[in-house]
Amino acid sequence: MPTVTVIQPTITEEKSKMIRCAAYCRVSSDSEDQINSFMAQLKYYENFLADSETEMLINVYADEGVTGTREDKREDFQRMMSDCRKGKIDRIYTKSISRFARNTKDCLKNIRELKSLGITVFFEKENIDTANMPDEMMITIMGGLAQEESTSISQNMRWSIQKRMQNGEYVLPHAPYGYRMEDKQLVIVEEEAKVIRLIYNHYLNGWGMKKIVNLLNQQTDKMINKKKWSYVAVRYILMNEKYTGNTLWHKTCTTAFPYKAVVNNGYEEKYYVENTHEAIISQEQFDKVQQLILSRTFEVKKCHCPLSQKIYCGECGTMFRIKHINGNTYWECRNHNMSAKNCSIKQIPEQKFYKAFISLRNKLFYNYKHILLPLQTVLQDLKLRRFSGNSNVMEIHKEIAKLKEQTHVLARLKTKRFLDNAKYLEQTSELNAKVNKLQSELKKITHLDDEDETLDQIEMLIDYFEKQCDPISEFDESAFEFLIEKIVVISQNEMEFHIIGDLKLTEKIC
C-alpha cells in the first residue's frame, strides 16, 4: 500500500473584505458652520472602516446644502440608490435617520427597497441596524419624528421670511444679472446692464428669444463675464420686474409637506415694493414686453403640434416644416420646398407619421421583454465590470473635501479682514476651478456619465411598458412626447424613430 504524505500549504490566502460598504452624509444648509459639519462627516467616514477585516468602504455619498424633505433634490442620494440597484453596495452607514430622510414615506420606501436587494442600513445616532430589525416599527417612529422636526424648522423659517416681507425688510439672497449686492442693496453693474437693455430693445423690435440668444452667444467673447446664454436666461430677464427698480416678493411658495416650490398663483399673499433699487429699464418698456410675450405665447399654443421640431430629412438633414393644403396637413423638407433639386424627399401627410408611431409603439409593447430586458442586462454587466470599487472615487472625494475646506478658511480670513477682496477672489476662483475639474472627473467614473444615462433610460422604457395594459389604436401624444426624441425620414417609404435610450427603430410609411 502506498504511503501518502500530506504537504501543508505555506501560502495563506489573505482575507478579503467581502462586505462593500458605503456612507451617506448630508447637511441642510449652505452656511459655513454646516459646511464644516459636512467636512467633519466626510473625514469621519473616510477612516470609519479602515481597520475592519470584514468590511470595506468603497464610496462616500454626500449632499451639501440641499433639502432633506425631498429625495429628488439629493443628487448623491439618488446616485447611491442607483448603485445599490446595480449591485455595487452591500451595506450603508449614515449618521441618523434625519440625515437619511425627513419624510417617513420615503424613508420606509427606501428601506424596503434596500432590504429587498439584500442591503442593510445602520443609523448611528439611533443605534438601529436594519440587519437585526424584525419589523419596521422603529423606523416608522423615528422617521415620523424626523419629519415633525423638519416641518417645525421649515414653518419657523417661512414665518420669519414672511414677516420680513410684510415689513419691507426682506433682503434678496443673491443679486440678479445686471446687479451686485452692496450693503444689502442692489447696485447696477453697468457692463451687464448694457446687455439687459440690448435684450429688451431687440425683443421690442420684433426679435424672437432664440434669435437674441444666438446674438448674445456670438458676442460672448466681447462681454465682461463671457457667460453662455440660453433661452431660459433671456426669458427670465424679460420677465423680471426687478429691472424696473421694483420688487415682487413671494412669487413662489411652498406646498404642505412634502415641501415643493410652486409658482404662487394666488395660493398665498405676494408683496410688491416700489423703488427698492435703481432701475435698468423703464416700467413702460417692461409692460410692453409682458404684453408681447403673452401674445406670442398665445400664438404658439394655437399652432402647437407634437411633431414640431422633431422631424428631420434623412437626405439633407434639414428640419421638416408643417404645411396646410386644402384642409389637409403635411410635413415637408424645407430644402425640397425651395427647390426639388436641393432634396428629392417630398411632402408626407401628417397622419402617416401618427400611424407609423402607433405601429412602433405596439411592436415595442408586445416585444419589449425580448428587446429591452436583454439589452439592460448587457449594459449592467458592462458597468459592473468597469466599476469594481474604483479607488479613484475615494481619492477624488478626499481632494474635493480638502479644496472646499481651503475655500472656507479663506472666507474666514476675509471676514476677519486678514485677506483683501481681490486676493480672496483670485484664490477662491483658482480653488473652485480645481473643484469643478475634479467633479467632472468624478462624473466620468460614476453613473452620471453618458453610458449610465442610457442605462437609466432603458430602465425607464421597461418601467413604462410594464405599466401599459393594452396596445393603442389612436395616437397618444403623451406617449409620443415621452418615447420619441426625433424622427428621420429616410425615404418616401421609410422613417427612423430615435427613442430614448439611444435606440433607433425603422417603420414603413403606409
Question: What is the count of DSSP helices, taking H or I runs of 4+ residues?
Answer: 15
> Alpha-carbon distance between the termini?
85 Å
Secondary structure class reads alpha/beta
Backbone CA Rg: 29 Å
Biggest sheet strand line-up: 2-1-3-4-5
- Helical proportion, percent range: 40-55%
> What is the 3D form?
flat
* Count of domains: 3
The average pLDDT score comes to: 77
Oligomeric state as shown: single chain
Number of strand elements? 18
Give the low-confidence spans: 11-16
Beta-strand proportion: 15-25%
Please outline the major beta sheet.
5 strands, mixed
Overview in brief:
The chain has 510 residues and is of the alpha/beta class.
Helix/strand layout:
Blueprint: E1 19-27, H1 32-46, E2 55-64, H2 75-85, E3 91-94, H3 97-100, H4 104-116, E4 120-123, E5 128-129, H5 137-166, E6 179-182, E7 185-188, H6 190-204, H7 209-218, H8 231-238, E8 247-249, E9 252-254, E10 261-263, E11 271-273, H9 283-302, E12 311-313, E13 320-325, E14 328-333, H10 334-338, E15 348-349, H11 350-387, H12 391-415, H13 421-445, H14 450-466, H15 477-483, E16 484-491, E17 494-499, E18 503-508
Parallel strand pairs: 1-2, 1-3, 3-4, 12-16
Antiparallel strand pairs: 4-5, 6-7, 8-11, 9-10, 13-14, 14-15, 16-17, 17-18
Helix pairs in contact: 1-12, 4-5, 11-14, 12-13
